[in-house]
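Hi support team,

I submitted a single chain yesterday and got back a structure, but I'm not sure I'm reading the token output correctly. Could someone confirm the output below corresponds to the sequence I sent? I've pasted both exactly as they appear in my results page.

Thanks,
R.
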Amino acid sequence: MIEALLVGVAAQSSLLLAGLVVYRFTLADRAVGQLAGLGAGALIAAAAFQLVPEAQASLGNREIGIWLLVGGFVYVIADTLVERRFGSSGAMGIVVGNIVDALPESLIFGIQMVAGLVSPALAVSVWVSNIPQALPPAADMRTSGWPARKQLLLWGSVVVAAGAASAIGYGVADAVGSVNGARLAALTTGALIAMLTTSMIPFAYEKGRIAAGIWAVVGFGLTLAAS
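Hi R., thanks for writing in. Yes, this is the structure output for that exact sequence:
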């Protein structure tokens, strides 16, 4: 279980790195938008070629559709609560999407570790793909006046929670034996689709304009190549 916790923390640690690196390097708005486009393309490919096949391995399409809706509602409700607390912000919507993505993803890691299915290459792929997802909202929050310690607390909490989720997934799968990550994969996909539609893609186009579309294709292609 300790190993699962460490894998979850390590795989999501790039969220914290991205949240802090913006205080050492200044990114132009156009670059922020293009990175968001890259991350959006990568997430679309991850959903299509990693999460959906994971769900289809154990579930029928009707049940997958139900869990997709559950994931979408989870994101929309969480995003609505964040908007009421922090005001309307595309950046915070992306942060919520990262959280809704990281926690079920980490649970899946823990579950798969029991069966010996998680490879170092998969963990590295998650670590790398988190960077273009987290950099744009982190840069936008810095511009809005967020101090580094506040982002450290925000992203650090997500990373710690991801590690705990991975350990929980491992513990439950080890105890029950028949647990798999299919429903979590479908739920995560639904949340990602909702986040991409309402937050990340509009944010990418607003900041990066038409070039964000090309970077989305690049992100999609890179993730497909690594799948």
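A quick pointer for reading it: The radius of gyration is 17 Å. Let us know if anything else looks off.

Best,
Support desk
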